[in-house]
């Protein structure tokens, strides 16, 4: 890949992130929506701290760029992207709690329970989760009712017992009983991979893609989801808190089994290269239109934070 392609990807990622940030800020204003009674200021402040604290907005980018392959309505894709970011952010708010990962920093800022308190963090996470489904279900997301229903179903599956929260459960259990290699792959595909896979498949649903195209993007999402977690585990070993914006070395300190701890750094780098190649091959049917998604795979594998 050429440096110009990568620069174009980074610019697009920043532009998509800015669009999502702007929409989320508008959606989380202090003005009650139709059907709401009021928005308690402290809860709203905790929600805003949890979701408007920077970040690459990679998952929203994947929704919007996948939808763009099919010439889909950009405003609908943006709303679904914002909904997914609400789900992702709620998961981080809850994962940071003392009952789970017990983290003080997130993206270089105090975690929600540190800035506010644990009750505020729990309620902020709950509110972001439920708001995400309202955003997708609303008629303001101007796609067919059937497409909205499909998105709601797939998002619930990706975020729930067989997806992200199930994966977090397995991750917590892994602190007591180390899983084997297949167990690690399974929990990572659920905890991290499920929402990334959804992000890519969501674009196909928004764009009324056929089943083959939808499966292609879902498989691409699975490949980059595994790459994302492998890169994360690698960074936990090789980076520092200043670059990451959160604590590093926690997996090693806890004796947690990861593919990096089993196979080592060089093996992990080779696997990442293979996953990038696999992801990019899955996009071949879409031709030049998939250029930015191909660069996204490379970015995920090579990121520094």
Describe what you observe in this structure:
It is an enzyme of class 2 (transferase). It comes from Phyllobacterium ifriqiyense. One of its GO terms (molecular function) is dimethylallyltranstransferase activity. This is Farnesyl diphosphate synthase. The structure is a single chain. By secondary structure, the protein is mostly helical. It has a single domain, classed as Orthogonal Bundle (Farnesyl Diphosphate Synthase). It is 71% helix and 1% strand. The protein has 15 helices and two strands. The chain has a two-stranded antiparallel sheet. Strand 1 (105-106) and strand 2 form a beta hairpin. The longest helix is centred in the last third of the chain and has 28 residues, at 211-238. The two termini are 21 Å apart.
- In DSSP terms (H or I, runs of 4 or more residues), the helix count works out at 15
Q: Care to count the β-strands?
A: 2
Low-confidence stretches: none
Return Rg in Å.
Answer: 19 Å
Shape: globular
According to CATH, the fold-level topology is Farnesyl Diphosphate Synthase
Largest sheet: 2 strands, antiparallel
The level of helicity is over 70%
**Topology as a string of helices (H) and strands (E):** HHHHEEHHHHHHHHHHH
Enzyme class: transferase
Pfam family, one: polyprenyl_synt
Protein name: Farnesyl diphosphate synthase
InterPro entries: Isoprenoid_synthase_dom_sf, Polyprenyl_synt, Polyprenyl_synt_CS, Prenyl_diphosphate_synthase
């Amino acid at each position: 890949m050429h440096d110009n392609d990568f620069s174009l990807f980074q610019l697009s990622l920043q532009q998509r992130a800015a669009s999502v940030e702007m929409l989320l800020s508008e959606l989380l204003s202090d003005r009650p929506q139709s059907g709401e009674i009021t928005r308690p200021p402290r809860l709203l402040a905790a929600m805003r701290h949890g979701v408007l604290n920077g970040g690459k907005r990679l998952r929203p980018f994947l929704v919007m760029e996948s939808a763009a392959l099919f010439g889909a309505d950009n405003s609908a894709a943006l709303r679904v992207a914002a909904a997914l970011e609400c789900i992702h952010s709620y998961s981080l708010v809850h994962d940071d709690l003392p009952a789970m990962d017990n983290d003080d920093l997130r993206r270089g800022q105090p975690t929600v329970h540190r800035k506010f308190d644990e009750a505020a963090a729990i309620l902020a996470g709950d509110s972001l989760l439920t708001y995400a489904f309202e955003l997708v279900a609303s008629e303001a997301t101007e796609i067919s009712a059937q497409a909205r229903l499909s998105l709601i179903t797939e998002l619930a599956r990706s975020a729930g017992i067989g997806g992200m929260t199930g994966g977090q459960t397995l991750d917590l259990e892994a602190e007591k009983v180390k899983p084997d290699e297949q167990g690690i792959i399974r929990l990572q595909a659920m905890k991290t991979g499920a929402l990334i896979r959804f992000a890519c498949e969501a674009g196909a649903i928004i764009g009324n893609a056929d089943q083959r195209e939808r499966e292609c993007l879902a498989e691409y999402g699975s490949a980059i989801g595994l790459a994302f977690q492998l890169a994360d585990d690698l960074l936990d070993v090789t980076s520092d808190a200043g670059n990451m914006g959160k604590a590093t070395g926690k997996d090693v300190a806890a004796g947690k089994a990861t593919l990096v701890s089993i196979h080592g750094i060089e093996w992990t780098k080779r696997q990442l290269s293979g996953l990038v190649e696999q992801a990019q091959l899955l996009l071949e049917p879409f031709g030049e239109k998939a250029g930015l998604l191909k660069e996204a795979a490379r970015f995920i594998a090579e990121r520094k934070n």
